[in-house]
């Protein structure tokens, strides 16, 4: 079953067309990786999927669980179970991770979770991620290292429990230990009811989070789709071979 289907999607930013007719299906129970050169439109796609108003959909359709969400606002998409992990998470001074996540969870579910029930939930997720319980009392991303910011986003993922997860360069700036911990969190979260799209420039996260499908985007279009092991060919030859050799892969 397709969790997400994109048909002939065209997206412009400040009057410039970035996505030029994207067609893509992401299936339930699958991990997908999206790769491509700088400027190919990967982050534009993630923002368009999440409903960022800066990214104007000029043509095409986005369907999530058979529901047309092309014109839905970001908060309504979040309530449907869509989650975007940002490449550069913002600092929110004065707001603890715990308070932020409890407010977000209440908003998504439409119900107010009791303080003690929420504490039990977040402590359980922190334990799964092997993170100090004190972490939840820190202000959101304030003074965090790159690795801590990414771990905070994986904690959000675990607590909010979305169905469709878009990870936009979650591996960016991580050292090897942080990468392993973040990858473990993603693998722990994944199950047959979830769908994950990992956007990355590098193979290394895909050595820990194994994709079922690899999608390659070039110049605002999907240039090639293949099985996860296609990443090895890409690592060896770069992007230049695609137009020439893609029919032989």
Characterization of this structure:
There is one protein chain. Helix content is 34%, strand content 30%. The protein is α/β, with parallel strands linked by helices and 249 residues long. It has a domain at 2-90 and 164-248: 3-Layer(aba) Sandwich (Rossmann fold), CATH 3.40.50.300. The strands form three sheets. A six-stranded mixed beta sheet has the order 6-9-10-3-11-12, sandwiched between helices. Helix 6 links the parallel strand 9 and strand 10 (195-199). Helix 3 (97-109) runs parallel beside helix 5 (146-160) and helix 5 packs parallel to helix 6 (176-189). The model has no long low-confidence stretch (mean pLDDT 90).
Percent of residues in helices:
25-40%
Briefly note the structural class of the backbone: alpha/beta
Number of helices: 8
Biggest beta-sheet profile:
6 strands, mixed
Query: Segments where pLDDT lies below 50 for 5+ residues?
Result: none
Strand line-up in the sheet with most strands: 6-9-10-3-11-12
Specify the CATH class of the domain at 2-90 and 164-248.
Answer: Alpha Beta
- First CA to last CA: what distance? 26 Å
Q: Give the tally of β-strands.
A: 12
Measured by DSSP, the beta-strand proportion falls in 25-35%
The CATH superfamily of the domain at 2-90 and 164-248 appears as P-loop containing nucleotide triphosphate hydrolases
SSE string, helix = H, strand = E?
EEEHEEHEEHHEHEHEEEHH
Shape: globular
- The CATH level-2 architecture of the domain at 2-90 and 164-248 is identified as 3-Layer(aba) Sandwich
CATH topology of the domain at 2-90 and 164-248: Rossmann fold
Question: Mean pLDDT, nearest integer?
Answer: 90
Rg of Cα set: 18 Å
